[in-house]
UniProtKB/TrEMBL annotation:
Membrane-topology descriptor: Multi-pass membrane protein
Record bears the keyword Membrane: yes
Name of protein: Major facilitator family protein
Membrane-crossing residue ranges in chain numbering: 9-28, 55-74, 86-104, 110-129, 150-168, 188-208, 239-262, 282-302, 309-326, 332-353, 360-378, 398-421
Molecular functions per Gene Ontology: transmembrane transporter activity
Principal subcellular localization: membrane
Protein's organism: uncultured bacterium Contig19
Alphabetized UniProt keyword annotations: Cell membrane, Membrane, Transmembrane, Transmembrane helix, Transport
Superkingdom: Bacteria
Length: 439
């Protein structure tokens, strides 16, 4: 069954709300890093203060390792089972993991809870991408994915400011942070998020058809039974490997920025943790919502998602260099950081739209997205751990290492986009040639 007309936008809305919530709890350190330090060291003696950055990095590494494995598994599942079942199951796993994390148990259980969260993300991720692709035709992919990212930004904004409001209650009149209140409000935030996962999972299961047919496919298309040969077919496609490199580079920049700009504003610019969290919400959700919507229109103007990503990566590298040179003063630093946010958050609106531009067959979408995610999101595996060690050992000088790494990824990403664009043009020329012969 195809979803057309206004109903597809309703499905896209609720699906995007769920997928937006999906990335909130596993990556909650992006918004409340310094509050988590208080929770783990002062509210409960979960970890020693000297190793807290590494521990927070380890939670990110657990999410990355499990997610990386599940991206492949989830890609296979997305081509083998119904999308709505996987999306609902993933949402329920996320609800369970969030509830467990909210109990703030010992260090081992917190790491295990993050593993469960990653299991939920991996279960629904490829099914989410495949469903979004099926909602639009070949010419609407950039619009569909950027609109989805816009909606994800909206729910992230609401959740983010809800968290800031809750955690702000822990600040006493004299400006002192009460560790007990921080811990209690942090738990409450996670419990609320678990309930949201549960409700949205049920709604998505009810809205998505049992047998979903993509708008790029003919009405009488017969579903192609999954075969493990699909994985081999996908691995042979240059488009998949271009997608891997582009995602790896773009996501590396996002991991550096989302994960450490918040604590950078506290440790280097001298901003208080509550204000820094508010800035993080503005960057990662409000600016992200606008930038991911705008990039869809930019891609339409460029007539290429790949060219647009290449341009964004190039500009991002320049902005990071400006932050390193000019960003020590609070006013200038905050301004550069918000400009930085516009570009690094905008890019995520097009990562998977490039698969359609490079003409990856619809029946390989799940496994192709799984392979690209498996390899492209590997910064989740190592970067938070590495950055945590840099900060623990080098102090604020560790930020220099983080930004140099991000600039290098921007340069490599631009080169990858150039090659990917040439490949996409070649594939389009082949399709046009076949069409002329058929006529």
């Amino acid at each position: 069954m195809k979803i057309q007309g206004s109903k597809r936008w309703v499905v896209l809305f609720f699906l995007s709300l769920l997928s937006g919530t999906m990335v909130y709890t596993p990556y909650i350190r992006f918004n409340y890093y310094d509050q988590m330090v208080v929770v783990f060291t002062e509210y409960k003696p979960i970890v020693d203060a000297a190793n807290v950055n590494e521990f927070i990095g380890t939670t990110g590494m657990i999410v990355g390792v499990v997610s990386m494995i599940m991206y492949i598994v989830g890609g296979i599942l997305a081509d083998k089972f119904r999308e709505r079942n996987l999306i609902a199951l993933g949402g329920l796993l996320l609800a369970a993991g969030t509830l467990w994390f909210g109990l703030l148990p010992d260090a081992t259980q917190i790491l295990a809870a993050h593993g469960l969260l990653a299991l939920g993300v991996g279960t629904m991720w490829s099914a989410y991408l495949k469903t979004v692709r099926k909602l639009g035709n070949a010419h609407e992919q950039g619009r569909m994915f950027s609109t989805s990212e816009f909606i994800r930004g909206i729910i992230g904004t609401l959740l983010g400011f809800m968290g800031v409001g809750l955690l702000n209650r822990a600040i006493l009149p004299q400006g002192v942070i009460d560790p007990t209140l921080v811990g209690e409000q942090f738990s409450l935030l996670l419990f609320i998020n678990a309930g949201i996962f549960l409700v949205l999972s049920i709604i998505c299961f009810a809205l998505i058809p049992k047998n979903l047919i993509g708008n790029e496919e003919s009405d009488d298309v017969e579903p192609v039974p999954f075969s493990f040969k699909f994985a081999l077919d996908a691995l042979k496609l240059p488009a998949v490997w271009f997608g891997v490199v582009i995602l790896f580079c773009g996501y590396s920049v996002t991991a550096a920025a989302s994960g450490y700009l918040g604590t950078y504003t506290v440790q280097v610019l001298g901003i208080d943790p509550t204000t820094a969290s508010s800035f993080a919400v503005i960057r990662n959700y409000i600016i992200a919502a606008l930038s991911t919507l705008i990039i869809g229109f930019v891609a339409l103007a460029f007539k290429s998602e790949i060219k647009t990503l290449g341009a964004y990566l190039g500009i991002t590298g320049i902005v990071i260099a400006a932050l390193m040179v000019l960003g020590q003063a609070p006013g200038i630093g905050i301004a550069i950081i918000f400009i930085f946010a516009f570009f690094y958050t905008g890019m995520r609106g097009l990562y998977f739209a490039t698969l359609s531009e490079m003409r990856i067959p619809v029946h390989l979408t799940g496994i192709a997205a799984g392979i690209v995610s498996f390899l492209g999101y590997t910064p989740d595996v190592f970067f938070s751990k590495l950055a945590g060690i840099w900060l623990d050992t080098a102090g604020t000088a560790g930020f220099t290492y983080i930004w140099i790494y991000a600039i290098a990824c921007c340069v490599i990403g631009v080169i990858a986009c150039l090659f990917a664009y040439r490949y996409a043009k070649k594939k389009q020329a082949e399709i046009d040639g076949h069409s002329e012969l058929a006529a």
